[in-house]
Amino acid sequence: MSLRAEQLTVGYGERDVLQGVDVPLPSGQITAIVGANACGKSTLLRTFARLLKPTAGTVLLDGAEIHTLPTREVAQRLGFLPQSPVPPEGLTVEDLVHRGRFPHQKLGRRTSAEDRAKVDWALTATGVEDLRARPLDQLSGGQRQRAWIAMALAQDTPTLLLDEPTTYLDLAHQLEVLDLLVDLNEQGRTIGIVLHDLNHACRYAHHLVAMKSGRVYAAGAPGEIVDETLVKQVFGLDSRVIPDPVTGTPMCVPIGRTVSKLREPA
Q1: What radius of gyration, in Å, describes the C-alpha atoms of the chain?
Q2: Which structural domain range is residue 135 located in?
Q3: How many domains are there within the chain?
Q4: Which one of 70, 81, 94, 115 is least enclosed by Cβ atoms within 10 Å?
Q5: Where is this protein found (predicted)?
Q6: Residue 133 DSSP SS3
């Protein structure tokens, strides 16, 4: 399945957030979208998911303009997890995850054995199986985030878009989620993900899109595009970029005030 943005311009009111953006999500790969706050990362992902309509350009899903396709058909082919979603009051974890199966169910159809199996798999894969009967409003931020990811997994789409899915998670759970996305990708899913952590993006993504002020600054394999100039231009940060000692992928080491300067005598 292919998903791509062509000459995409998207705005809020009179302000353009994306300006003539061309971004393909390579089929069968993990694409990470990175950049400073307010650069257009989430706007791009929301436009890919058909939640925003471009003022110019288009998003193509398997060659068809995504806004011309039936909603149910898009939901069967494209899963989207937004940033900081808000659930209905009183919803349990299992109820939430079952909602991921709605695009596959006909109106009035009872839950099938396949639906239950997908829900059980998603709960187990995200480590929230023991919380299935708990109301979401009684969970920690990290537990709620994993429940939302489970809902997206239960939707069982060939393409999965996630906007900062590691938000609220401690480091161990961040890596568990990213490792899970690698497993899903190895099963054939195409994944687009917005990440704040450049080092995680470099380690886990095949393809990286670095955005600056509503435009694509650079795109390609992390090892081919991530260097100290990119970090400075995209994030406004002085750094050293060295090989990750575990994976060999680029690793950004920020440069701040050094310990020696902090300890200089008055």
Answers
A1: 20
A2: 3-226
A3: 1
A4: 70
A5: Cell membrane
A6: coil
